[in-house]
Design goal:
- The chain has 14 helices and 14 strands.
- The chain is α+β, with helices and mostly antiparallel strands.
- Strands 1, 2, 3, 4, 7, 8, 9 and 14 form an 8-stranded mixed β-sheet that branches.
- It is globular, with a radius of gyration of 20 Å.
- The relative contact order is 0.21.
């Protein structure tokens, strides 16, 4: 048995530049921070078959390829010892999340980082954080063909605040930024408010629309160019400047594709500004989820009350310096992720599924060392597992993760 948790993330600046459609032409540079909200995956051996417990429901299948969920199906097919009669041993997965699916907080990326770490641990040894990020991206983008970028996987794997850079050939470098994490943590739920909208959505549609629209476009380059200004304003706790940059970011993002917003979101945005906020943006791909709002601390409660009347809920949350980690393991040995072991995850967590972005309890994690140091993703040999039909149609953007797949990512250990 292996218990793994991974944090969700808050995209701060430069989001969208981690899409291969952008970074293969212009490179990627963005800022993101891990949150205290987490996804948990427990993997256990059973005599045969596959059992998945999620969303309060249990699904069973004789073989991984018979599972309805594409992410679990692809991850198990890639990582478990599979032959024609199914896995050499059965597996039971129990999945929990602190945040509802479709919330724009990178839930599917965090789920996959936890899943590949748990499954690899069950079948031989957990991946280290950088290998988990590469493998999770390979599964989601390469094997499942979902139009995602890399930031969710890297932030979930590394924890803390990260500056993610990706070269045009797909080599990623996730650099820890302790100063930025502490600055954001001091502002969250005081001057930077996270408001949950009543809209949840699968990220595929807005992401696919952005991916199609960013080819050769200039709006995403403008967003990427705001990274240094965002960091400086956050470090200085200049909330008026942060708000102005959020507004500029949101305006540029809306110009990429109409899929990131709708009439309800536009109305909420104007109301938020009308109630004294300096600026705001939808977190993640857009189309729903959470709004990040910059306002004065003296105005926070008034703005919260006004938006509660519109169905928006203020979420009290903080940053988490820890990334993917083992929280429990039968026959425990050294922690393969390099993170400190902790007690198993709280039993009070709300069950969620292998979400498409992620029910609602924001746990608070204890303080620990920030990050695990920068790690570059090597370009190793081709993966031994065939990339599926969806990836055959679109393999762009996974060059930098193929080396991890070649040896299940264990070369970094």
């Amino acid at each position: 048995m292996t218990d793994i948790t991974a944090p969700l993330r808050l995209s701060l600046a430069g989001g969208g530049s981690d899409l291969p459609e952008h970074y293969e032409r212009h490179g990627c540079r963005l800022l993101a921070v891990a949150l205290t909200a987490r996804v948990r995956v427990r993997a256990e051996r059973i005599p045969s078959g596959v059992t998945v417990r999620a969303f309060g429901r249990t699904t069973r299948a004789e073989h991984p390829e018979l599972l309805a969920d594409p992410l679990i199906r692809a991850a198990l097919g890639h990582l478990s010892p599979v032959n024609r009669s199914g896995p050499a041993t059965g597996i039971r997965l129990t999945i929990e999340s602190d945040v509802a699916p479709g919330s724009g907080l990178g839930g599917s990326g965090a789920f996959l980082v936890a899943l590949v770490t748990a499954v690899s641990g069950l079948y031989g040894g957990p991946l280290d954080p950088s290998a988990a990020a590469r493998t999770a991206f390979l599964v989601e983008r390469g094997l499942c063909g979902r139009p995602v970028g890399q930031q969710d996987h890297w932030t979930a794997a590394r924890g803390g605040a990260v500056e993610l850079r990706i070269t045009p050939d797909g080599v990623a470098d996730a650099r820890p930024d302790t100063e930025l994490r502490r600055a954001v943590d001091a502002l969250l739920d005081r001057q930077l408010l996270l408001l949950r909208t009543p809209i949840t959505r699968a990220a595929d549609r807005p992401l696919a629309a952005q991916a199609g629209a960013v080819r050769g476009g200039s709006a995403l380059s403008r967003i990427q160019n705001l990274v240094d200004e965002f960091r400086a304003a956050l470090i200085a706790a200049d909330i008026a400047r942060v708000g102005a940059l959020l507004h500029e970011h949101w305006t540029a993002k809306r110009s990429i594709t109409p899929a990131v917003s709708n009439d309800r979101i536009d109305r909420w945005y104007e109301l938020i500004r009308g109630h004294g906020a300096y600026g705001a943006k939808l977190v993640g791909a857009g189309g729903g989820g959470h709004l990040l709002v910059a306002t004065e601390a003296s105005n926070a409660d008034r703005l919260t009350a006004a938006m509660a009347a519109e169905g928006l809920t203020r979420v009290a949350i903080g940053t988490d310096p820890r990334g993917v980690r083992i929280t429990g393991s039968a026959g425990s040995g050294p922690d393969g992720t390099g993170a400190d072991r902790t007690a198993p995850a709280s039993a009070g967590a709300v069950r969620a599924g292998p979400d498409r972005n992620g029910p609602t309890r924001t746990g608070a994690g204890s303080e620990g060392p920030d990050g695990n140091g920068p790690t570059r993703t090597g370009r190793g040999s081709e993966a031994p597992h065939r990339v599926g039909e969806a990836a055959t149609r679109r393999t762009s953007g996974i060059a930098g993760v193929r080396g991890a797949a070649a040896s299940r990512g264990r070369e970094d250990r």
